[in-house]
Amino acid sequence: MDRMLQDFDARFRAAEDRLRGVRDRFAAVGFDLYAEGFDRVAYYRDVVGAETALAEVFAEARMSVRVGDIVWSALYDAERLHLDYADEYRRLLAASDTAAVGTASVLVGR
Fold first, then answer.
1. 34 in helix, strand or coil?
2. What is the pLDDT of residue 69?
3. In angstroms, rounded to a whole number, what is the distance separating the alpha carbons of residues 47 and 57?
4. CA 106/CA 78 separation, integer angstroms
5. What is the pTM of this model?
6. CA–CA separation, 91 and 97 (whole Å)
């Protein structure tokens, strides 16, 4: 059990560090999605990956560790929160991709 908790902790810290790195890159451009040189699409993809990784750790912990109802509920809530963030950024990424395709088709049509 201790080994399993250490594994969860290590995976959680790695996913959290990944998310922190993404946020640090965003902070470096003053939280401006349209800053010159800032790759918004890469940012969205990185956030989706980091949030999904965090959700997976919570989901696995919830399914693997015997815990009381309150702790189980907290793990489930944390999992849902990170999945919701990932879903929101997937929508932003899809909207960004759609806008890029629309712009390209307008440019090609000229």
1. coil
2. 74
3. 16
4. 42
5. 0.76
6. 10
**Residues 94, 44: Cα–Cα separation, whole Å:** 10
How far apart, in whole angstroms, are the C-alpha atoms of residue 110 and residue 106?
Answer: 7
pLDDT one-digit tens code per residue, 11-58:
989 999 999 999 999 999 999 999 999 999 999 999 999 999 999 988
Joined together, the tokens standing for residue 70 give 């309150």
Residue 110 has pLDDT above 60, yes or no: no
Q: How far apart are CA 48 and CA 15, in angstroms?
A: 11
Buried residues in 60-69 as b, exposed as e (16+ CB within 10 A): bbbeeeeeee
DSSP the chain: -HHHHHHHHHHHHHHHHHHHHHHHHHHHTTT-TT-TT--HHHHHHHHHHHHHHHHHHHHHHHHHS---HHHHHHHHHHHHHHHHHHHHHHHHHHHHHHHHHHHHHHHHH-
